[in-house]
C-alpha cells in the first residue's frame, strides 16, 4: 500500500534524486524531483506537497548550509504546514538544530540507508496525522462563541462593521479570536463570495515582502520564473487580512501605506500601477498606538487601517464565557475522538473558571482536547493543565543536574523545555515567544501541537 502523500525532493545531485525516487516511489503516491532550487517556490505554489526532502548545500564545495536554510524558510512561508526533512552531507549537529529551530521537522545525514530514509519520512506522516486539526484550519469551521457583555459588544461591532467597506483593525492578545473575527466579518460582508486572503506579516521574509504582496514579473529577479500576481491583487473582489501587522518593519510600512493610499500595486519588475479592490482587515497583538509613540509604527499607516477598531477581550476579563467554551469544546472533541458521556467534574470546572488562561481560547481549546484524549472513567482529565497552573512553570519536570536522566539530553526534550519556558516568559504571546526562539509563528504552533503545550 502506498501512502496517499506527495514527497518533493530538492537536490542538485541527479544521482541522489534518482536513488531517492527509486527508494520512495513504491511507498508514496507521488514523488516529485527538483534539481533547481530557484524553482522551489513555483513548485510549492502549483502543487500540494506533504513532505519536502531538502538539501542543505547547493553550490559546489559549499558546506555552510545557508542555502538550505534560505529555501527552508521560503518553503515554510509558502506552505506553513509542510514537513521539511533536511539532508546534509555535513552532519553537523548545530546546523541541523538551527534548521529545526527554523521549522524543519527532522534531518537525515547523507549518505542514508534506504530503510532509514523511509522510516524518517513515514514518521513525518504519522506526526502530521497526529496533529490533525491544525489551529488555523480549525478556525475555518468553528463558530465565535461568547455571551458575556464584552463578547456581545464585539459581535455587535462585527456585524455593524461587516456591512460597511471600512478598514478594520482587530486587536487583542494572542488566541483571543482575531483571525476568527476576520473570518466572521468577511463571511457577513457583501464580499463573502470573493476570496479571503490572509497574510501573516510576521512570517514574510523582508527580501520577499514586495514580491509577495505586490507581485512580480517574470525575470524580475533570479527566482521569478513566471509572473506572480501578489496577495493584494489576489484579494481583489474579496477581503485582505493582514495578520500580525505590528511586526512590520518601518521600511515596509511605507511601501504598504503607498499601496493602500493609491489602491494600486506596482509589481516588482514593472513600472505600471495596477488597481486592486480589496476590503482591508488588519490584526495585531501589539499596542500600535504605543508603537507610534516609540517611533516603531507609522502614525499615518495606523490612521489608514483603524477606521473601526475592535478589541477582542482576553478570557480572564470575561470569565462568564469560560464554562460555555469548555462545554462546547468538550462536545466538539468528544465527537472528534468518538468519546461519549465525558464530563468535567464540578471541582475541575471551578478551577478552570478561576484560571487566567494566558493563551486565551486557543489554550482552552488545546487543554480540552488533551483532557478528552487523556480521559478515564468518563471524566475529562485536566491534571496536566493544573500541574502547570499550580507550579506556575512550564509543566515539565525540571530535574536538578544530579538527577538528570538520559532523556534530558534528547533534542526533543531540550526543545520542548525551551519552548515551554519561552511561552511562560512571554505570558502566552505566540509572536514574541516565536521571535525569541527564532521560529515563525506557524513553526511554533506546530511544535506546541507536537509537545501538547
Ligand atoms: N470566541 C470564540 N469561540 C470559539 N472559539 C474561539 C473563539 N475565539 C477564538 N477561538 C478559537 O481559538 C483559536 C485561536 O483563535 P484565533 O486564531 O482567531 O486567535 P488570534 O487572536 O488570531 O491569535 P494569534 O494572535 O495568536 O494569531 C482558534 O482555534 C479559534 O477557533
Automatic annotation (TrEMBL):
Keywords: ATP-binding, DNA-binding, Nucleotide-binding, Phosphoprotein, Transcription, Transcription regulation
Pfam families named in the record: AAA_lid_14 (PF25601), HTH_8 (PF02954), Response_reg (PF00072), Sigma54_activat (PF00158)
Domain Sigma-54 factor interaction: 144-373
Domain of life of the organism encoding this protein: Bacteria
Keyword Transcription in record: yes
Modified positions (4-aspartylphosphate) in chain numbering: 55
Key word Transcription present: yes
Listed SMART domains: AAA, REC
Domain Response regulatory span(s) in chain numbering: 6-125
Designated name of the protein: Sigma-54-dependent Fis family transcriptional regulator
Amino acid at each position: 500500500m502506498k501512502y496517499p502523500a506527495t514527497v518533493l525532493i530538492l537536490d542538485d545531485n541527479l544521482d541522489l534524486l534518482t536513488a531517492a525516487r527509486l527508494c520512495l516511489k513504491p511507498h508514496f503516491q507521488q514523488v516529485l524531483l527538483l534539481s533547481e532550487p530557484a524553482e522551489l517556490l513555483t513548485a510549492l505554489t502549483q502543487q500540494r506537497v506533504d513532505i519536502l526532502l531538502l538539501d542543505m548545500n547547493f553550490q559546489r564545495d559549499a558546506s555552510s548550509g545557508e542555502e538550505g536554510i534560505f529555501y527552508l524558510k521560503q518553503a515554510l512561508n509558502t506552505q506553513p504546514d509542510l514537513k521539511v526533512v533536511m539532508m546534509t552531507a555535513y552532519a553537523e549537529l548545530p546546523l541541523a538544530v538551527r534548521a529545526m529551530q527554523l521549522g524543519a521537522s527532522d534531518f537525515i545525514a547523507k549518505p542514508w540507508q534506504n530503510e532509514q530514509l523511509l522510516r524518517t519520512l513515514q514518521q513525518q506522516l504519522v506526526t502530521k496525522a497526529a496533529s490533525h486539526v491544525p489551529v488555523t484550519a480549525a478556525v475555518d469551521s468553528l463558530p465565535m462563541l461568547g455571551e458575556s457583555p464584552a463578547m456581545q459588544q464585539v459581535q455587535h461591532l462585527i456585524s455593524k462593521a461587516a456591512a460597511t467597506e471600512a478598514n478594520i483593525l482587530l486587536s487583542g492578545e494572542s488566541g483571543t479570536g482575531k483571525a476568527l473575527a476576520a473570518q466572521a466579518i468577511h463571511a457577513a460582508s457583501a464580499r463573502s463570495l470573493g476570496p479571503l486572503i490572509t497574510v501573516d506579516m510576521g512570517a514574510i521574509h523582508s527580501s520577499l515582502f514586495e514580491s509577495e504582496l505586490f507581485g512580480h514579473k517574470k525575470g524580475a529577479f533570479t527566482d521569478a520564473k513566471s509572473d506572480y500576481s501578489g496577495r493584494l491583487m489576489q484579494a481583489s473582489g474579496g477581503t485582505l487580512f493582514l495578520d500580525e501587522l505590528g511586526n512590520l518593519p518601518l521600511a515596509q510600512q511605507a511601501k504598504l501605506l503607498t499601496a493602500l493610499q493609491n489602491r494600486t500595486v506596482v509589481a516588482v519588475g514593472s513600472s505600471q500601477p495596477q488597481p486592486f479592490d480589496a476590503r482591508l482587515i488588519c490584526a495585531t497583538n501589539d499596542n500600535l498606538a504605543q508603537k507610534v509613540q516609540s517611533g516603531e509604527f507609522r502614525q499615518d499607516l495606523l490612521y489608514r487601517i483603524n477606521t473601526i477598531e475592535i478589541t477582542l477581550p482576553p478570557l480572564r476579563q470575561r470569565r462568564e464565557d469560560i464554562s460555555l467554551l469548555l462545554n462546547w469544546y468538550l462536545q466538539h472533541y468528544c465527537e472528534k475522538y468518538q468519546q461519549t458521556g465525558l464530563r468535567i467534574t464540578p471541582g475541575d470546572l471551578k478551577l478552570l473558571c478561576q484560571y487566567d488562561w494566558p493563551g486565551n481560547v486557543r489554550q482552552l481549546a488545546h487543554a480540552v482536547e488533551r483532557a478528552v484524549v487523556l480521559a478515564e472513567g468518563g471524566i475529562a482529565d485536566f491534571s496536566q493543565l493544573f500541574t502547570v497552573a499550580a507550579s506556575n512553570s512550564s509543566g515539565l519536570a525540571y530535574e536538578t543536574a544530579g538527577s538528570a536522566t538520559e532523556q534530558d539530553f534528547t533534542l526533543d526534550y531540550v526543545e520542548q523545555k525551551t519552548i515551554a519556558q519561552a511561552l511562560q516568559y512571554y505570558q502566552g504571546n505566540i509572536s514574541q515567544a516565536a521571535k525569541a526562539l527564532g521560529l515563525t509563528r506557524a513553526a511554533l504552533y506546530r511544535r506546541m501541537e507536537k509537545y501538547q503545550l
